[in-house]
């Protein structure tokens, strides 16, 4: 069953890359064209439950290659975002290719992000369906704020500020949670968490099979 958080990215002329508008952008990001597919970690693995380390080495070929691999891995898994610990690298970094509720596609990566949320008095919580590539085959309703701003750096150390509303705000919050060692399961009641894990047990093999098929199509 497809979950909203893992939906495919539509071709859209309205695109913002690294928070800035661009005139045109390909359906498959250039980073994905250069990358290799990595294994996605699954809930229960230690790397997903511990806080990630601050990235201190910027502008390196290794960091660029990691980002390229994360983009392709996210694409093969039909994800809207992917954190580094989801490919077994415990660094504070995530990539995204995600639409907002206005049809604008947001593409980019952010290193060492800090998330700003609206003040409690002005924030609005939205209950919506959410899944995770590290909880394959499961999806549950999770409350998130309808606005979020992520501030950090790009791979070369340049400042990045990305503002999200609606579904994209959800994506920014979801991926930042990963960097603190949390998945969306941690925001569920015991009953809902049990339900999500049951869904995963029933569907994960089908999800893995679909990822393998898509990777094979790309020669990976």
Q: Could you walk me through the main structural features you see in this protein, from its secondary elements to its overall organization?
A:
The protein is of the alpha+beta class and 220 residues long. Helices cover 29% and strands 25% of the residues. It has four helices and nine strands. Strands 1, 2, 3, 4, 5, 8 and 9 form a seven-stranded mixed beta sheet that branches. The protein has a two-stranded antiparallel ribbon with strand order 6-7. Mean pLDDT is 93; it is low at 1-12.
List keywords for this structure.
alpha+beta, Peptide Deformylase, two-stranded antiparallel sheet, globular
Structural class: alpha+beta
Number of domains: 1
Give unreliable regions as ranges.
Answer: 1-12
pLDDT averaged residue by residue: 93
CATH topology: Peptide Deformylase
Q: Which sequence of SSEs, written as H and E, runs from N to C? A: EEHHEEEEEEEHH
What's the CATH C level? Alpha Beta
Give the terminus-to-terminus CA distance.
24 Å
Global shape: globular
Q: CATH-wise, what's the superfamily? A: Peptide deformylase
State the total count of DSSP E strands: 9
Distinct helical segment count: 4
Q: Describe the biggest sheet?
A: 7 strands, mixed
Q: C-alpha Rg, in Å?
A: 16 Å
Beta-sheet strand percentage? 25-35%
**Annotated CATH architecture:** Alpha-Beta Complex
* Percentage of residues in helical conformation: 25-40%
């Amino acid at each position: 069953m497809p979950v909203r958080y893992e939906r495919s990215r539509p071709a859209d002329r309205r695109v913002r890359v690294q928070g800035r508008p661009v005139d045109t952008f390909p359906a498959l990001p250039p980073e994905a064209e250069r990358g290799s597919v990595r294994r996605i970690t699954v809930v229960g693995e230690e790397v997903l439950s511990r806080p990630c380390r601050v990235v201190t080495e910027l502008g390196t070929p290794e960091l660029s290659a990691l980002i390229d691999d994360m983009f392709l891995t996210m694409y093969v898994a039909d994800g809207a975002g992917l954190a580094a610990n989801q490919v077994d690298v415990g660094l504070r970094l995530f990539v995204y290719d995600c639409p907002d509720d206005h049809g604008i596609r947001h593409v980019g990566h952010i290193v060492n992000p800090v998330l700003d949320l609206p003040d409690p008095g002005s924030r609005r919580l939205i209950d919506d369906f959410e899944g995770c590539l590290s909880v394959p085959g499961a999806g549950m309703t999770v409350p998130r704020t309808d606005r979020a701003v992520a501030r950090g750096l790009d791979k070369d150390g340049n400042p990045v500020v990305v503002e999200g509303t609606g579904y994209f705000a959800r994506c920014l919050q979801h991926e930042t949670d990963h960097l603190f060692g949390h998945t969306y399961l941690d925001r569920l009641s015991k009953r809902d968490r049990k339900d999500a894990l049951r869904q995963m047990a029933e569907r994960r093999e089908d999800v893995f099979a679909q990822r393998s098929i898509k990777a094979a199509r790309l020669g990976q």
